[in-house]
Write the structure tokens for this entry.
Amino acid sequence: MKSRTKNLLSHEDIQRLVKVNFGEEYEHKIGEIKELKGGMFNAIYLIQRVDEKNGIVLKVGVAPGRDLLTYEQDIMPTEVACYQLIKEKTSIPIPEILKYDFSKKYIDSNYFFMEELKGVPLSKASKLMNKPSLDKIKSKLAEYLVQLHKIEGNYFGYFTDEKKYQYDTWKNAFLSMFGQLLEDCKFHKVNIPYERIEQALKYNIQFLEEIKKPSLVMFDCHEGNVFVNKRNGEYEIQGIIDFERAFWGDPAADFPAAFIMSDDIRKEEAFLASYFEKSDTKKEYTRDDEIRFQMYRMYILTVMAGETFRYGPLYAKMQREWAKSGILKCLEILED
């Protein structure tokens, strides 16, 4: 996917980064270098290794000076921090981070190396699955999200060292996050119903006050970031990737992000049943949960509308119109 945010590197630059991080002796092990074009934000490369079964993946952050949404500024350290937390505190399958460098000494952006996942994205594999197999994967995904949500932070909001953006309440954090996003959308002249969104947030703000503990929320656990493989005829989750958009907040915010095509999480019966079974604190889906689901869905759809300035005109128009349609559906429920 073409995007203005991708910091594309030459093969010579990539080879230099490999040598810097893994040693001069690694140079003769470098095989084919291939750009992985499925992503929409970072430049990602698969580097094959001579005489090795698995390659390594280089993920390159956005170069300085690129136009971004405010929350997207310098988010690669968030991803690495999440991988470290998840490895330490859960059994969630993730790729191993091999090396990372945020110094911008060798290239003008952050980057890290991680191990290659040999599986395929669930977005592709799901087309080949029958319902029982897909339900099994969704149930396992719910188990992993329960583990993720048990990781608690010291504040609400996006990962940051700036105290003014470390909020004591989820209500204040979410209002700040959404408010800044709307300002970004206005700057890029995105055609969405700003006043209705702001009024809907104000009208339903009390539902956010129920969230007392800041849990780790991935907010990007869609099928494209869940890799599966087949073992003994059964599909299983091999790894989950892309934690750069994570924040500390309400665990339920992961529901609309994981099932972005669904406007009603109750349709995902296998997922919810597994989540409630494994969770120590959440055992049912209430009317209050539905309101919050729609608020978080409206937020991620607004993100999707707001980020289209960096895509080609045809794709941008398609995504923007789809996102706006979803926002209007959320508003119908939140204004009721």
Summary: The chain has two domains: 11-115, 120-334. The mean pLDDT is 95.
